[in-house]
Amino acid sequence: MDLYSGYINKLIEELAALPGIGNKSAQRLAFYLINMPSDRVRHLTKVIMDAKENVKHCKICCTMTDQEICPICANKARNHKQIMVVENSRDQAAYEKTGKYDGVYHVLNGSISPLLGIGPGDINLKELMVRLEGDVDEVIIATNSSLEGETTAMYISKLIKPTGIKVTRIASGVPVGGDLENIDEVTLLRALDGRTEL
Amino acid sequence: MDLYSGYINKLIEELAALPGIGNKSAQRLAFYLINMPSDRVRHLTKVIMDAKENVKHCKICCTMTDQEICPICANKARNHKQIMVVENSRDQAAYEKTGKYDGVYHVLNGSISPLLGIGPGDINLKELMVRLEGDVDEVIIATNSSLEGETTAMYISKLIKPTGIKVTRIASGVPVGGDLENIDEVTLLRALDGRTEL
Fold it and tell me: What SS3 class is residue A80?
């Protein structure tokens, strides 16, 4: 005999399939949803469908937006000759939050990962190369500092080099406020390699 | 300027309002949902609404079920004279998983919490008292071992005592496999108080 009603089991199963939600959280969420007032549940499902149906990719930088061209690409005050390449819209938002970067972005929507079978053709590289035919001074590669992120950075830099456009990579090292004793060796060595003169 | 499109912000906000989902998880989930194939998103929202619309409370034990009477209450092979009182359907499922309890349950759907303004009238106690008018041998109180759970247990035992029905409380102590050095003092003292002769 199943522990819960079929409807509850199906809901738990669906929720547990989402990223970062384990079986226990899925159970808690399922019961929470079932106990929520009907109109709030209807509202939640509507918000999900609305986002799904209305959010598309910016025709220029491929970030997620509800317009043809995203507000950043449409902003004439920004430096369109400087393009920061990021893996996804969340990484872009992280840099936007700093409020100090006034260039534009290019969102790859992923990173090259031979392990997961994600090749250069699966991320938004073609779109980037088309942009580089225009007037661009610098491409800043801000992919994650992971194996996939580094692989992607290497691949992109090799791809762009022949065009003569300057390609840079964001620095990797000890995080600000980080205690050296708690930081892994790879990061420590990376910080040493990347040392700058004072 | 908002970091994301309005639809995405609204979705993140709704997701972050769910229990156990922080702002970062909500962002990750939102982008995952938007990138999911449309039919899978539609399926997910349908499963949520289906569960919400079809799951109700068992007329006898108040657990969540899609029938009038839940499978456990409808099962004649179980001992209907022994009622285990639990806070919610998940706690009930935890005991069902042991496969060793053959009595029935009563689901309070909460616990008494003066702090949260939840009084005895807000949990399914009336329904329990109605059941006790029938032929019942024992009420096993299996509310959580938290302040609220203990308060609820005390309240229920006082409520039932006058009826002459036997009221018991599940044991509290060191978890099986638990290392004494890692267990908090309250539990250690509770285990000492509850010691049994060998």
Answer: strand
pLDDT tens digits, residue range B166-193?
999 888 887 877 777 777 878 888 778 7
Task: Check CB contact of A64 with chain B, cutoff 8 Å.
Answer: yes
Q: What confidence tens digit (pLDDT) does each residue in B68-96 have?
A: 999 999 999 999 999 999 999 988 988 88
In A133-184, which residue ranges form alpha helices assigned H by DSSP?
Answer: 147-160
Residues B43 and B112 grouped into a single domain: no
Searching chain B, which residue's CA lies closest to the CA of residue A58?
B5
Tens of pLDDT, residue by residue over A160-196, are 999 999 999 888 887 877 777 777 878 888 778 777 7
Residue type, A176: V
Q: Touching check for B10 and chain A: CB below 8 Å?
A: yes
Reference B190, options B112, B101, B180, B166; nearest CA is B180
Asked whether residue A90 falls in the same domain as residue A149, the answer is yes
Query: With an 8 Å Cβ cutoff, are B1 and A71 in contact?
Result: yes
The domain that holds A33 is classified in CATH as 1.10.8.420
pLDDT (tens digit, 9 = 90+) per residue, A110-150?
Answer: 999 989 999 999 999 999 999 999 999 999 999 888 889 98
If asked whether residues B16 and B87 sit together in one domain, one would say no
Amino acid letter at B194?
G
Check A11 against B47: CB less than 8 A apart: yes
A50 and B CB contact within 8 Å: yes
Where in the sequence is the domain holding B115, given as residue range(s)? 64-197
DSSP conformation letters of B81-113? EEEEEESSHHHHHHHHHHS---EEEEE-SS--B
How much of chain A exceeds pLDDT 70, in percent?
96
Residue B106 forms beta bridges with which residues?
B85
The whole-angstrom separation of Cα B52 and Cα A31 is: 9
User: In total, how many domains does chain B have?
Assistant: 2
Give B25 to chain A, closest Cα distance, Å.
Answer: 7
